[in-house]
């Protein structure tokens, strides 16, 4: 089937006026492969056609349902064929997809963006997505967002502190409640389940909510500080909404779900059916973004998509905890979560993995104060106990907020000094 240029190609300025999702891909090709033909095959193959011409494609289909090639950018920016002295060439390809094809839902959108590349013989990585407001606003995003999370905790003037119960699993609700109580005495704002603890028979989520809320109440009476429990409801998809209803009826004020395991659409469905803040966890999401020639970029996987899906808090990785995430990707992910984006509330970034008092200053310098610091072992593993570990983290944050060097603050706070001696100080 012969395609004229007006049907298969479009300029960026014209596409932005219409109902298209604009996807940017990275691709590597042998230098003798026609990148325009490859991009065109993707635009057609992931919308109305396949890898060879097929009968039945009408003018109306082409006009309203076919993808369009918007841009092809050479990397490096070669202009002359004589400049190419490599066997493989790299490109950024922008393809516009009419969103009438899939609507405001994740399964068919992701299938369109990435699911058909094998049949079009294209190994690509999805680097960026640009949505028109008419499309993005249909997802609603977080119900509570950053301000709602702050209202829930009652803390407005500093980063929040979140801890997770350790050991990760293998204990009863009553044992977990004792750990919760000892940690809450230190003044943390939120305590969540570890992502490895869901709803096993030996430690049911509803039972944890009841026991942990009693522990939170006891700690509040002793310290005057509220600590919110975030219960993990991740499960088989047919059980998640029921889990959510049960834990909320039992008194849960916030829930956690691993969107990497259950999918963005399950997170989206949960946000449409629950009236407490949702913490979206990224455990296992490396399979989405670690490939160079497949998957998607981490700012999409951990940033834009869970925000659209409705996560009020999103756990994310950083370059500082042993995982080799690029600094640029860490900043871009935070931007996708929290910068102004149409009418969609910002999600609150929660940074985890190797978080300790000595790194608090680095995170606040990088990301500002509208973040959640999520130390695990540095609280539960503090030599003087979990309460002392929590106090050390809060002492570090307070010092940074007052522009006092941590080593100076440590002279006044033994808990902080012990933490700095153990885990160091990263300015």
Automatic annotation (TrEMBL):
* GO biological process terms, semicolon-separated: carbon fixation
Pfam families from the entry?
RuBisCO_large (PF00016), RuBisCO_large_N (PF02788)
Q: Which InterPro entries match?
A: RuBisCO, RuBisCO_lsu_C, RuBisCO_lsu_C_sf, RuBisCO_lsu_fd_N, RuBisCO_lsu_N_sf
Spell out the Gene3D superfamilies in the cross-references.
Ribulose bisphosphate carboxylase, large subunit, C-terminal domain, RuBisCO large subunit, N-terminal domain
Q: Where is the Ribulose bisphosphate carboxylase large subunit ferrodoxin-like N-terminal domain?
A: 17-135
> Which PANTHER family is this protein grouped with?
RIBULOSE BISPHOSPHATE CARBOXYLASE, RIBULOSE BISPHOSPHATE CARBOXYLASE LARGE CHAIN
Family affiliation: Belongs to the RuBisCO large chain family.
- Protein name, entry field: Ribulose bisphosphate carboxylase-like protein
Origin organism is Tepidanaerobacter acetatoxydans (strain DSM 21804 / JCM 16047 / Re1)
């Amino acid at each position: 089937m012969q395609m004229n240029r007006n049907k298969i190609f479009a300029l960026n300025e014209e596409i932005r006026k219409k109902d298209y999702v604009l996807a940017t891909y990275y691709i590597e090709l042998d230098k003798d492969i026609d990148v325009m033909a490859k991009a065109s095959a993707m635009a057609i193959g992931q919308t109305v056609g396949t890898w060879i011409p097929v009968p039945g494609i009408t003018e109306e289909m082409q006009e309203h349902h076919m993808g369009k090639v918007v841009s092809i950018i050479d990397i490096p920016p070669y202009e002359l064929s004589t400049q190419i002295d490599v066997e493989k060439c790299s490109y950024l390809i922008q393809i516009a997809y009419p969103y009438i094809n899939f609507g405001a839902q994740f399964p068919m959108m992701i299938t369109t963006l990435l699911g058909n590349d094998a049949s079009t013989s294209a190994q690509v990585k999805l680097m960026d997505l640009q949505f028109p407001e008419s499309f993005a606003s249909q997802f609603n995003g977080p119900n509570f967002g950053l301000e709602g999370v702050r209202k829930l905790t009652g803390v407005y003037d500093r980063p929040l502190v979140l801890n997770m119960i350790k050991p990760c699993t293998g204990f009863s609700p009553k044992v977990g409640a004792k750990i919760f109580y000892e940690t809450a005495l230190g003044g943390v704002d939120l305590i969540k389940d570890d992502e490895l603890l869901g709803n096993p028979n030996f430690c049911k989520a509803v039972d944890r909510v009841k026991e942990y809320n009693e522990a939170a109440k006891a700690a509040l009476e002793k310290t005057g500080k509220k600590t919110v429990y975030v219960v993990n409801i991740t499960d088989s998809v047919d059980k998640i909404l029921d889990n959510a209803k049960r834990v909320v009826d039992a008194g849960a004020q916030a829930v956690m779900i691993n969107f990497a395991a259950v999918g963005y659409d399950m997170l989206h469905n949960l946000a449409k059916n629950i009236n407490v803040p949702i913490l979206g966890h990224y455990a296992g999401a490396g399979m989405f973004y670690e490939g160079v020639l497949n998957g998607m970029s981490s700012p999409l996987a951990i940033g834009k998509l869970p925000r659209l899906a409705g996560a009020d808090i999103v756990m994310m990785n950083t370059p500082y905890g042993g995982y080799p995430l690029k600094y640029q990707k860490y900043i871009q992910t935070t931007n996708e979560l929290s910068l102004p984006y149409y009418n969609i509330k910002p999600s609150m970034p929660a940074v985890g993995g190797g978080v300790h008092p000595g790194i608090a200053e680095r995170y606040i310098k990088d990301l500002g104060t509208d973040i959640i610091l999520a130390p695990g072992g540095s609280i539960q593993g503090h030599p003087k106990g979990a309460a002392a570990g929590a106090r050390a983290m809060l002492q570090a944050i307070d010092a940074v907020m007052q522009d006092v060097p941590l080593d100076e603050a440590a002279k006044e706070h033994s808990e902080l000094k012990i933490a700095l001696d153990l885990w160091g100080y990263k300015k």
